[in-house]
Amino acid sequence: MYNNYYVSVIIAAAGMSNRMGSKINKQFIAIDNKPILAHTLEKFEQCQYIDEIILVSKEEEVEYCRKEIVRKYGFKKVNKIIRGGKERQDSIYNGLLALNEKTDIVLTHDGARPFVRIKNIEDGIKGVLEYGACVIGVPVKDTIKVIDESKGIHHTPKRDLLWAAQTPQCFWTHLIKKGYEYAITEGIVGTDDSSLVEKMGHEVKMIMGNYDNIKITTPEDLIVAESISKGIDNIYLSKEFLFQGR
Ligand SMILES: Nc1ccn([C@@H]2O[C@H](COP(=O)(O)OP(=O)(O)OP(=O)(O)O)[C@@H](O)[C@H]2O)c(=O)n1
Ligand SMILES: C[C@](O)(CO)[C@H](O)COP(=O)(O)O
Asked: What is d(CA 229, CA 226) in angstroms, rounded to the nearest whole number?
């Protein structure tokens, strides 16, 4: 369906893992006996519409990624492993500079989100064809408070319109490149890629994802991750029994 387009994904894996507090890059920690980063890459390798993967890693981990992740698990679509930058935004920018010149559509994804589903990837590509730019995400479950500097609650936004942004975030190549160039010119730093395109005044659509597409950030996430990898589908299978058909 999307084979007329050359689709590249930039996988950001060059972070510091500060909040995880691990001695090694959190993406090399094993879940279900396989490194988190290998779980992540596997999903894009298996998606028939992905043509190339640009892996962004810390300079000193490029060789480790090549040998212990890409070669060991036999990923064929990883065209380049390049070094990242200080912030996630810098790492993705390096990825944009390394794209194949044929690239029509760019997806950005966190190496630390190993439970992305092939359906999320396909929905993201479809979203680009329909809207030009889209983000996979989920409606928030908690009530969100906006606070001031002294932790006083400033206001409580209406929850119906609040969604948590995940990755992949998906764009026409020219649009995301323009967003990043605009951010450099204007000195904008965002915590995701979509916000840079939004700041330019271009609409970005939200596409329903899955709650289990978690970003592994703190140690508790590893416990949740082991459970997810054991099979969220099994939880749904037993739902009728657990919740008596509710
Ligand atoms: N300079 C950076 C910072 C982050 N990332 C990547 O972006 C993703 C999301 O970032 P996050 O979960 O915040 O990872 P870290 O930056 O490693 O975490 P922390 O902020 O706790 O150090 C991760 O896959 C991370 O490796 C990156 O490629 N380059
Ligand atoms: C891109 C992202 O995963 C969307 O939720 C998130 O913003 C990354 O932020 P982090 O500060 O690098 O964890």
From this structure: 5
| Backbone conformation region of residue 28, classed left if phi is above 0, alpha if psi is from -120 to 50, else beta | alpha
Cβ of 85 less than 6 Å from ligand 1: yes
CB of 213 closer than 6 angstroms to any ligand 2 atom = no
In the numeric block, the tokens 């700041």 are attached to 199
Q: Single out the residue of 38, 53, 159 nearest to residue 100, CA to CA.
A: 53
Task: Yes or no: say if 114 and 31 are a contact pair by the CB < 8 Å rule.
Answer: yes
Output the pTM of the full model: 0.95
Q: Which ligand is nearest to the CA of 196?
A: 2
> What is the position in ligand 1's atom list of the atom closest to the CA of 87?
1
Domains observed in the chain: 7-136+163-243 (3.90.550.10)
Q: Give the chain's mean pLDDT.
A: 94
- Kindly indicate whether the ipTM for this predicted assembly is greater than 0.95, answering yes or no: yes
